[in-house]
Amino acid sequence: MHLRTPLLAVCAIALTSLLAGPAAAQDKPPLKILVGFPPGGSADQIARLVGDAIRDDFAQVTVENRPGAGGRIAVTAAKNAKPDGQTVIILPSGPMVLYPHVYKKLDYDAVKDFTPVSLIAHFQFGVVSGPASGAKSVAEMLAKAKADPKTATYGSPGLGSLPHFMGVLMEQSSGASFTHVPFQGGGPANTALLGGHIGYKFDVVSETAELHRSGKVRIIAVTGPRRDPQVPEVPTLKESGVNMEATAWFAMYAPAGVPPEALARLERAVSGAVKKPAMQERLLKLGYEPVGSTSAELAAAQRADLARWEKPIKATGVSLD
After folding, report:
1. CB-CB neighbours of 143 under 10 Å
2. Which fold has domain 124-222?
3. Which helix (H) or strand (E) holds 171?
4. Span of the secretion signal (predicted)?
5. How many CB atoms are closer than 10 A to CB 49?
C-alpha cells in the first residue's frame, strides 16, 4: 500500500524528463560558423576546434568555408546574415584591423557592421628563411638584404595581408630593404619559397613548424614577445636585435544588431570553452595563446589594433580597390 505513492512519483518524474528533453533541445538554436579561408588552414583549424568545444551549447554547429578575396567574401556574408545569433564568423585580425586602412572600397565597416563576441587566441608569425636565401639568423638575413636588396624577397598570401605588413614592419624596424612578392594564397607562396623563387616568408608558426623541423626551411625568428613552444630554440626578433614585436589574433564576430540574450549565449559559450584546461592545452600545443575574452574586451582590442596599424600601412602607400 505504501509503495504505490513513491512508484507513481518516480513514473511522473520520468515522464516529465521525457517530455522536457525535446523541449530543452529546441531551446538551443543552431549555429553556423563562417570561415573565409580554405579547409586545413589556421583559421579553419581554430573554427573547428571552437565549434567542437561549444557543440553542447547549440542544437547543431556547422563550419562553412567561403574562401576568397583574403577572407572578405565570408566577412561580407557574415555582415549580411540575419542578426539572430545563429550565424557568426571566426577570422584572423587582418580583415578587421588592416583592411580598413588598405582597401578604398570595402563591402563592410569593420566596426559598425559587426558585434564582437570573443577574442579566442593570440598568435605570432615566424620569419622563415628558404633555400634561396640560406640565412641562418636574422643578422645574416639583414646583412644579405643590405648588401643586395634585390635578392631580399619575401612572399605573402597577397597585398594587404598580415604577412605582407609583417615584412613592412620588419623594414621599418631594421632599416633593411625587402621586395614584397604577393601570391594568390599561402600555398603558392610556400611553393615559391621551397622552390627557391623567393628568399623569405612571414608565416604562422604552426603552419611552418613541420617544414622547419624537417630542414626544408628555417624559422630564424618569431615576431611575438616570447619564444614559441613549437620551436623553442628559435629566438624572438627582439632577442635577435630587431626592435619589433607583432602578434595577431583569432576572434568570433556576429552581425550588428544581435539581441543581447543571443550575444550573451555566444560570449558565454566561446569564452567558457576557451578557458577550459583541455582546450587551452590544445591551443598552446598548436602555438596559439588562449584568451577567451568578453565582447567588450574584443572591441577594445580591435580599436587598439586599428589605431596601431594605421601609421605603418599609410607609410607604405599601399591602397587597393
Report:
1. 12
2. D-Maltodextrin-Binding Protein; domain 2 (3.40.190)
3. helix 162-174
4. 1-25
5. 21
